[in-house]
Fold these 2 entries.
Entry 1:
Amino acid sequence: MGLDTKPLSTLHEKSSYDVADFPVPTGREEEWRFTPLSRLKGLHNGTAAVTGGVVVDVEAAPEVRVETVGRDDARLGRAYTPADRVSAQAYSSFEKATVVTVPKMTAASRPTVVTLRGSGAGATAYGHILVSVEPLAEAVLVLDHRGSAVYADNVEFDVAEGATLKVVSVQDWDDDAVHVSHHHARLGKDATFRSFVVTLGGDVVRLSPSVSYTAPGGDADLTGLYFVDADQHLEHRLLVDHSVPNCRSNVTYKGALQGDGAHAVWIGDVIIRAEAEGTDTYELNRNLILTDGARADSVPNLEILTGEVAGAGHASASGRLDDEHIFYLQARGIPFDEARRLVIHGFFTQMLEKIEVPEIRERVLSAIEAELAR
Amino acid sequence: MSTLEIRDLHVAVGDKEILRGVDLAIRSGETHAIMGPNGSGKSTLAYAVAGHPKYTITSGSVLLDGEDLLEMSVDERARAGLFLAMQYPVEVPGVSVSNFLRSAITAVRGEAPKLREFAKELKAGMDALSIDPAFAQRNTNEGFSGGEKKRHEILQLELLKPKIAVLDETDSGLDVDALRVVSEGINRFRASGDTGVLLITHYTRILRYVKPDFVHVFAGGRVVEEGGPELADKLEAEGYEAYTSKVSA
């Protein structure tokens, strides 16, 4: 099939608010083939009945407005249309949504922290969050997922003209949690979006961050860090849809895996549509496989429909700790365990510096320490 | 007073035997130069003694003050007092020079240096080797030029103060100025106490700055001739040809 007979893009085919528009996944579909459907507790086929039990608590900066609204609020779903079955299920099933608004030309004086706490593995819930950053406003937002739940949600980041939003999303669930989530950022003219995703805990976490642009000058930087332990499935599916000229995106995800049955999945889709001239994009995924029995699937897809790009590239590498690094450190007297710790820290260091919130950075550092001590 | 004693050492990489019976003894206060053509096994000797996993010791022994180095892990050998300055120092992403050196000093000395003293010691060491202090915050060897990497190796040598130092082609890739700075570092180390040096080199150039007491000519995986500094002069004049033809005969 030549380019001329392809659909507009093969990477972003479908979106709808209606669950019925998406067949129940079987696991053979490209977008579901890595996900262990049997461990989703029915989120994908409509059998996960809502019991509640995920409490959303917002500690907002004084300049920021926080509301809890019903399904009928007209602002919801404007920035994002669900792109798969679970996302549509969450969209049609949530009862209350949280709306965070950063008013026009306001710089929030401190981070706004949204804590989502699951009450236990029996809790099943659907959620929706809208973060609206009005023109020329600036804010830092933390999404902190804790406890345990079976939870599917959509988070919309609507970043208006000239606005800046920096998000840190921490998936620090208990071992038995199941979380399927979409984060979508819609960027206006000259808007800046920074996302830092940290996924550490949960039985299955499938997080799909995506970005679209409504006008030129949008700038998105998506960074992710994950540490996968035995029998955990942590999946990140990135999609950046360049549909307007002169926007930028950069995706960097790095993970470490250890233990039998540890499974990381990273999908990095970037579309540069015919009209998106002057696009500058790069995506990178690296996986550090620390033990036998761990597996990383890493699939970058770059679909370029114009010849006029400023830059477009991707890289993906999964491998073991480099013996030469370890040898060099050991040759200076540093014991093996300490050498390994230094190299793994080094693998994550440059990314950690990007976390805007010092408390979160410290927390992630100590979480990595704890993982290495296992 | 320390002695590194290498006896009848045979080393293979995979199925291929590289070292075929090496005997050497290096005592503190002595500087030995090993010279030889490319592929003669000089670097193999250095890495095998340090414990690089790529090399298999098929027979022989290596003792440091009577203790069997071959029974030790790589880091134990370093803590026992062996140092290898590498021909190609490894880039370690995300690990700063300062963090790396502090970890190494802590491991070798058995206790963490006080931060202030460490900072002072590091600065003095870097000054002596004309290393820009900004390097302390850079990732270990990452993006360093060849000369910067070699200075960084000698900085480690001076900070870790081993009993025996093996310097593997520390002179290669250095311009004259860098060669002088690096040689001065080696000479400071030699003058600092009871230390022995095994200098591995292809060229006689560095021997003008670092005077050896003994010269060993390496060919075909073993020492084929030994002598004093005058042997280096002979090699300078005649090259290695005599030895390489001897081996193949």
Note: Residues 176-191 of chain B form the longest helix (16 residues).
Entry 2:
Amino acid sequence: MSRAGAVRPGEPVAIAPDVFWVGALDPDLRQFDIILRTANGTSYNAYAVRGSKGVAVIDTVKAEFAEEFFARLWSCCRPDEICAIVLNHLEPDHTGALPALLKAAPQASLYLSCPALKMLKGLVKESLDEARIIAVDEDTRVDLGGRSLRFLYTPYLHWPDTQCTWVEEEGLLFSGDVFGCHFCDSRLFNDSVGDFRFSFDYYYQHIMRPFREHVLTALDLIEPLALRLVAPAHGPILRDAPANYVRRYRQLASPLLANEAGGREKTLLVFYISAYGNTERMAQAVRNGAEGVEGVRVSMYDLAGGDPGPFVDLIEEADGLVFGSPTINGDAVKPVWDLLSSLTLVKVKGKFGGAFGSYGWSGEAVGLVEDRLRGLKLRVPRPGVKVKLIPTDEELEGCAELGRELAEHLVGRVAPRHIDFTAPNALTA
Amino acid sequence: MPKAQVTFEDIGVTVTVPAGTRLIEVSEKIGAGLTYGCREGECGTCMMKIVTGSEHLATPSVLEDKVLKENYAGVANRLACQAQVLGGHVVVRPG
């Protein structure tokens, strides 16, 4: 027995007058893009918009689902009616059927953002007639006859190319991955499907959160729209109270931890873990040094006493990070790596960073952590402090100096420095 | 040895380097806020602003010029992974 309201194979679904869902369902998917899990699959949402002058196709589907996509598409239009193909996002789960669609509708123009142009050649390996490819901006209007498409450039949600397509006459936003989620329910609409709130938030946290600033910029563009329907590229179509989901994005993108100092203070977090108390003493010295700089709030955390999740929330709001790790078997220790490998969930680019640690005979941890911080695009303005076994008072003063200098960077009071790289041993300066 | 000076404005550090040095070779060592992606002049991640002294940088290659245009670069923008300092004093900052 089929479920009431469930989409049937090969049939498009009208989501607005002359606007159809022509996507595909993938209920068996359990892991997406390596980094996301899904307990009930996903959908690849593609759409067809009919005007008196022709049909626009908005996005396609993952390659394995092309047959399902074309079955629906050819049920609502002929290939020669397609005048526009819009790609809101070029990731393969939305462009898998593009090469076949381009062949089936050779008269259609391809509309995409400027950054998407660079990626297109990586996806469509056959030569493309450049006259068919149109890079759009906010002034572009595609007239379909009786309705038109406009474009909102919403970069980094979650690739550089991402954009939304707006059909003003219908109050309809094709939002790409924004407002999407991995939740497969054949009833399609948010007022018909099961409870997908967890999936909506989970998708935001794993896909959009690293680009929080870009989310807020995009919301400034989206919130003024008179939305009646939001049609994302994954998950339920949002026809009941779509503005609620826009509001939810605003909540999710707002700082999780309010700083009661009102943003006047800079924050420096000192994370450490210690086997014999030596790295802990170094951490205390780093903290003490940083606390001597006015305007910097310093907090210290023992990684042995916490999980990465809450620390990631703290780090997202912090201005500077220092990591202390002993060296064991030539490496930093696992709790340090566990936290450092969790930081792709948030934006850390441009924060100040540093490292320190005690070691027995080789001391690789500090350099390895610094390399990781640079890889995450933090600024590491001075070499870290490595101490062989028990730190002396002089070495602890070096740790305090590390903390002090990082704190001075945070408040912009660091003294100008000059380094002569043409001098012998300059690299260790 | 012909030398050049580069000031990384965001962290207040000035370096003296051999003429011909690419900025990528020194900026990370001193912790400047220039960040890199592909490091090969393709992605545009390391676009920086030349505050003063742009005349002391080698002219952009065809590749750098193309990527700058694709990323809507202004006249003061260069790619840190490509730009070579030839002499004099150049002041740069992220962006």
Note: Chain A has a mean pLDDT of 93.
